[in-house]
């Protein structure tokens, strides 16, 4: 099959990036892509929901690729527009998380390098990778990285409610505050049809190795094996949980006795009063059904 080079590109820029250190990335990327000969439509809106609507509507007019500038929230926006359409996604990592960029081997801490990597990738045929599809109530949400339900989701929830401090230290503070009162949660899990009930600190379903900006929860996760990896942290004392968390950043927790990994194609997670997050976006209360969808995403890498 011959590779037809993309000509028309949509470039969607994270609204909150306009206040941060990466505010110049979007316009600079647009100029660089235009210089490289692409027709670029730059999409910038005051808030996330407006941007999502504008990007969806521009996408429906036709394009050869959608490029998102930002972190995993922008990846989530992009993935939910291009999943299963065959139109490739490009990622210019300029957020706090950047976990999909990490998983794809793209620059994740240098937006200028990320722009150059994209320009090079556009000359190559896109690669195809798996996505996760989460069904909760009537809604279906695609995710590229990780769905979380448990301690990490609770921390996410608290961090989102906090206004200070700005940046990643807010998560650390939220984590310490939640830890003070956190108790193991009761789950009903069904992995590929086989049910089990258990207590756990958290249950995550991973498509990529890391979440939350490089926490390597499933170091062996593979974006194109047609499987998701269920990550369970069994009940631990607070001290125990605190001792596991730092090791997770380095992927050194894999032999810890409280940590379990289970590959699965389909996962159902149930539990009272537990909220699920996918790629950092709030889905809502359990239950949630998750499945691996092989080859659902084309990416410029």
Q: How would you briefly describe this protein structure?
A:
Helices cover about 30% and strands about 35% of the residues. The protein has about 300 residues and is an alpha+beta fold. It is globular.
Keywords, separated by commas or semicolons:
single chain; 301 residues; alpha+beta; six-stranded antiparallel beta sheet; 16 strands; globular
What does the model show?
The chain has 301 residues and is an alpha+beta fold. It is 29% helix and 33% strand. It has eight helices and 16 strands. The chain has helices at 25-35, 48-60, 72-82, 99-103, 111-121, 151-161, 169-179, 238-250, and strands at 8-13, 39-43, 65-70, 89-93, 127-136, 139-143, 146-150, 185-191, 194-200, 202-206, 228-233, 259-264, 266-270, 275-278, 281-285, 288-299. The protein has a six-stranded antiparallel beta sheet with strand order 6-5-16-13-8-9, covered by helices on one side. Strands 12-11-10-7-14-15 form a six-stranded antiparallel beta sheet. A four-stranded parallel beta sheet has the order 2-1-3-4, with helices on both faces. α1 (25-35) packs parallel to α5 (111-121) and α6 crosses α7. The longest helix is centred in the first third of the chain and has 13 residues, at 48-60. The protein starts with 7 loop residues before the first strand and ends with a strand. The mean pLDDT is 90.
Low-confidence stretches: none
Strand content: 25-35%
Say how many strands there are.
Answer: 16
The number of helical elements comes to 8
Radius of gyration: 19 Å
Content-based structural category: alpha+beta
| Main β-sheet description | 6 strands, antiparallel
Sketch the topology as an H/E string, one letter per element: EHEHEHEHHEEEHHEEEEHEEEEE
What is the average of the pLDDT values? Answer: 90
Cα separation of the termini: 18 Å
General form: globular
Within the largest sheet, what's the order of strands? 6-5-16-13-8-9
Instruction: Give the helix level as a range of percent.
Output: 25-40%
């Amino acid at each position: 099959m011959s590779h037809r080079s993309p000509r028309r590109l949509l470039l969607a820029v994270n609204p909150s990036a306009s206040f941060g250190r990466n505010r110049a990335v979007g316009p600079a990327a647009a100029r660089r892509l235009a210089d490289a000969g692409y027709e670029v439509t730059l999409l910038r809106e005051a808030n996330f929901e407006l941007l999502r609507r504008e990007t969806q509507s521009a996408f429906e007019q036709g394009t050869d690729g959608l490029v998102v500038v930002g972190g995993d929230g922008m990846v989530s926006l992009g993935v939910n527009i291009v999943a299963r359409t065959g139109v490739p996604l490009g990622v210019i990592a300029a957020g706090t998380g950047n976990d999909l960029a990490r998983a794809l081997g793209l620059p994740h801490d240098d937006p200028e390098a990320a722009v150059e990597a994209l320009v090079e990738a556009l000359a190559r045929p896109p690669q195809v990778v798996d996505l996760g599809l989460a069904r909760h109530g009537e809604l279906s949400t695609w995710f590229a990285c990780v769905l979380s339900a448990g301690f990490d989701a609770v921390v996410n929830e608290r961090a989102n409610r906090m206004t200070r401090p700005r940046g990643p230290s807010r998560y650390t503070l939220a984590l310490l505050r939640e830890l003070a009162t956190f108790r193991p949660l009761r789950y009903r899990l069904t992995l590929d049809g086989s049910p089990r009930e258990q207590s756990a600190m958290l249950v995550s379903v991973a498509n990529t190795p890391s979440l939350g900006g490089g926490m390597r929860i499933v170091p062996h996760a593979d974006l194109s094996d047609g499987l998701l990896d269920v990550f369970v942290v069994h009940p631990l004392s607070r001290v125990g949980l605190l001792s596991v968390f730092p090791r997770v950043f380095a992927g050194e927790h894999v032999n810890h006795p409280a940590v379990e990994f289970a590959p699965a194609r389909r996962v159902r997670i149930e539990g009272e009063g537990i909220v699920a997050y996918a790629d950092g976006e709030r889905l809502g209360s359990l239950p949630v059904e998750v499945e691996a969808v092989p080859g659902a995403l084309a990416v410029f890498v």
